[in-house]
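From the shared-data thread, chain only:
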Amino acid sequence: MVLDQPQHPLQVRDVEKPRPSKGQLLIRIVACAVCRTDLHVVDGELPDPKLPLIPGHQIVGYVEEIGEQVNSKFKVGDRVGIPWLGWTDGDCVYCRSNRENLCDRARFTGYTIDGGYAEFTVADARFCFHLPDRYNDVEVAPLLCAGLIGYRSYRKTGDAHRLGIYGFGNAGHLIAQIALFEERDLFVFTRPGDHATQQAARKLGAIWAGGSDQMPPEKLDAAIIFASVGPLVPAALRALAKGGIVVCGGIHMSDIPSFPYDALWEERVLTSVANLTRRDGEEFFKIAPRVPVKTDTQTFPLEQANTALDQFRSGKLKDTAVLVMDAS
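Structure, as C-alpha cells:
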C-alpha cells in the first residue's frame, strides 16, 4: 500500500521484492499495526516523508534472507519486530552518548524508509528485535510503537507515585498496565463526556478517571500526554504537584497555547519524548510478558489499509487496527 502524496488515499501496487543490502534482513511480513503516527504521515502533518512511501512501523515478520555482515543474532526463520527507529549513523555526538534516538541522520521506518504496509521489507538488523514468545503475531504488533514509545515516556516519569495519563488510546492503555503492575496510583483523563473510556480505565485499575477538563482529586507527581492536543499541556501542568513532570509522548501535537509562568514554577518540568532507543525495546520486551501487557486488536487485510486509517481518523476504532498480509 503506497502513499504517492500526503492527504491522498494509499494505492494498492505491485512493487519489486526488495533485496537485503549489507547489514540488512529481508523480512516476510505477517502483520503491521496501524499507529497514529501513520495518520500524521498520510495526512501531511509530518514534513518531508520519502515519496512514494510504504507506511507502517509496527512490523512483525519472519527472516527470509540475511544480507552480508549481519551478526549471528538472527537466523532464517526467526520472528522479528521492526520499530519506528530504523537506522542511525552510530558516530554522532548523540549516538556516542547513548542518545541514538536524537541522531541527526536517523532514518525512520514507514516515514523516511519504506515500512510494513507490504508483504516484504528490508531492515537494518541492528534495529530489529526478537519478540516474546508469549504473544502471537497480531497481539505483539501494537507493542512495537505504542508500547515502546509509551514505555520511554513512562520511564521519564521516574518514580512518580501518582501518575496521570491524558489520552487513553493504544499507548495509554498499554502503559497503564505497567504502571499498575508497578503499583502506581493511576489517574486517567479522556475526552470530556467519554464515560465509556473512563469506565474502562477504572475497570483496569485506575483510582480516578474523568474528562481532560477536570482536575484530579489530588495533585499528580507526573503526567504523560499521549493525545496530540496542545491545550492539554497547561491543563496537565495545573494538575501537577510541586516538582512534578509532564511528558509529551507524541511525535506531533497541535499548538500549545500560552500559559502563566505560575503553572511551571516550583520546579515543575515539561519535556517531550523523541523516538526510541534499542535499550528501550530490550527493557520493554522483558517487562511486557511479566505483567503481562495485553493488547486489544482488530484485524484488516492489507488492501483495506485505507479503511483502517479512515476508521482510526474518525475515532470509530475501538481496538488497535492491525493489517494482516494473509487474511486466510
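Helices lie at 36-42, 137-140, 146-155, 170-181, 195-204, 232-238, 278-287, 305-313.
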